[in-house]
Amino acid sequence: MANRGTEGEFLFIPSGKVKTAPIRRGDAGPLEARQPVAAAVSYRIQHGADLPEPLSYTTCSDVVNGKIYVFGGRTAPDVLSDGIWVYEIARNRWRKAAGRMPYAYDGRGARTVTHGGIVYLSPGLGPTDNNGWGIHQRIIAFDIAGEIARETASFGAPVWSVSPVMLGNDIYWFGACGLGQERNIWRFNPKTGALSIIASLDGAGKGTTGAVHQQPAATGGDHADVCRR
Question: What is the band of 174 on the pLDDT scale with cuts at 50, 70, 90?
């Protein structure tokens, strides 16, 4: 990534845009190969309105109907928030959501997935730091229309620092922090509310999730796991 000037113009490589370019390998003659090279696109970064209160360790939704939802966070080193902020992109303004989190919430950067008008979050730390140990075990479901968050299906034991990935009609959670939970792969059906362990990781999880060739996958430590459906 390159930064040019002082107006916030950045040059970076967006996914999905590639071109091929010849490359020369070694000194053993004119060996060339067509190597995929990402195409650089210039974007201008604009600063939006400041969040009305300083927060760290928040968990944010993707953009949903022109809005971004920000859940919980820390207002001070040992003070957690149960607030939910809504950023309206077109109006460049923040407002408080109608409801609050079920408890003061520290998501430690865990991401969210949105399905059927619901933003799903993993359990977080709270209402205090608990020396970095979680005590909650239920998925949090935030209803976008009513702006109300509630706890739903249980993992069966406290888990934290776990991120979901949506694939098809199911949500998958790979590994977690939590005694005895580090290798589990869970599948959650938003329609039925069923949450179950379907497989185990080769190594402890607590990694980044995504989809590889239409299969849910996670990275953790020095390995990656793909769950074959």
Answer: confident
Domains in the chain: boundaries: 2-43, 48-226
| DSSP structural state of residue 131 | G
Alpha helices by DSSP H, listed for the chain, are none
What are the backbone dihedrals phi and psi of residue 132, each rounded to the nearest 5 degrees, phi first? 85, 10
| pLDDT at residue 107 in the model | 82
Q: Model-level pTM greater than 0.90?
A: no
Burial 63-95 (b: 16+ CB within 10 A, else e): eeeebbbbbbbbeeeeebbbbbbbbeeeeeebe
| Stronger pLDDT, 215 or 109, i.e. the higher one | 109
Cis preceding-peptide flag for 14 (omega within 30 of 0): no
Question: How many other β-carbons are positioned within 10 Å of the β-carbon of residue 145?
Answer: 7
In this predicted structure, the answer to whether residue 16 has a pLDDT above a threshold of 50 is: no
Domain at 48-226: CATH architecture: 6 Propeller (2.120)
CA separation for the pair 169, 190 (Å, rounded): 8
Kindly state the tokens that stand for 152. Answer: 């739903």
